[in-house]
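Bumping my old thread because nobody answered last time. Still need a sequence for this structure:
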């Protein structure tokens, strides 16, 4: 029987702890001191379904826990790690991790017309957290996935025209129509159950 690689072990560990998506890629072009990025995705609707109260707190706690557990796994094997937690709002450099670019490179999805990572499983309704590590990984294959070629729904439904050839940040009113109306993902059919989703999303982003 083939021995499981450390990449496979970490993947299995993170999924057991609640990750829905896990991908691996090199990150040297962004961070020369780390060889690899581990990108973890969790279905936002799944987490909201589980939350009895304070869904935002629950979501951020779960994402932070996954990041910490992944880092612990790597530290115990002697690898260097870095990652930013949602709870560390003031951490210097927190915003320098290009989560979306690394998520695409790690095979989690593609960048959609709404300028978010679109995953086959959950469309854009996925929360991401990233760990940088010195562990060499077996890189995941980027996806052959291009749902926006045949769809313009988010662009058509955006009330302000913020989705153009670039994201017009100043035009966006954070209504999250472009997140909630995206038809991609097996969770898309559940969206109608959540009338308060725009409010929740506004608090997440
Ligand atoms: S959040 Fe609303 S306003 Fe902003 S880009 Fe999406 S649809 Fe347009
Ligand atoms: S709504 Fe359509 S165009 Fe927009 S991100 Fe989703 S699949 Fe792409």
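Sorry it took so long. Here it is:
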């Amino acid at each position: 029987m083939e021995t499981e690689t450390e990449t496979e072990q970490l993947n299995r560990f993170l999924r057991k702890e609640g990750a829905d998506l896990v991908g691996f890629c090199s990150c040297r072009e962004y961070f020369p001191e780390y060889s690899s990025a581990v990108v973890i995705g969790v279905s936002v609707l799944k987490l909201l379904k589980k939350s009895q109260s304070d869904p935002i707190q629950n979501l951020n706690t779960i994402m932070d826990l996954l990041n910490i557990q992944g880092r612990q796994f790597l530290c115990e094997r002697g690898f260097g790690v870095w990652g930013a937690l949602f709870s560390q709002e003031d951490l210097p450099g927190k915003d320098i991790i290009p989560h979306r670019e690394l998520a695409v490179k790690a095979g989690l999805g593609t960048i959609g017309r709404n300028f978010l990572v679109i995953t086959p499983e959950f469309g854009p309704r996925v929360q991401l957290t990233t760990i940088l590590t010195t562990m060499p990984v077996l890189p995941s294959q980027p996806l052959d996935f291009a749902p926006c070629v045949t769809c313009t729904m988010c662009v058509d439904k955006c009330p302000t025209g913020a989705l153009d050839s670039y994201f017009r940040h100043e035009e966006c009113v954070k209504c999250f129509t472009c997140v909630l109306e995206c038809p991609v993902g097996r969770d898309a059919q559940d969206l109608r159950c959540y009338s308060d989703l725009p409010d929740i999303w506004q608090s997440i982003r």
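Residues 145 and 198 are 27 Å apart (CA to CA). Let me know if any region looks off to you.
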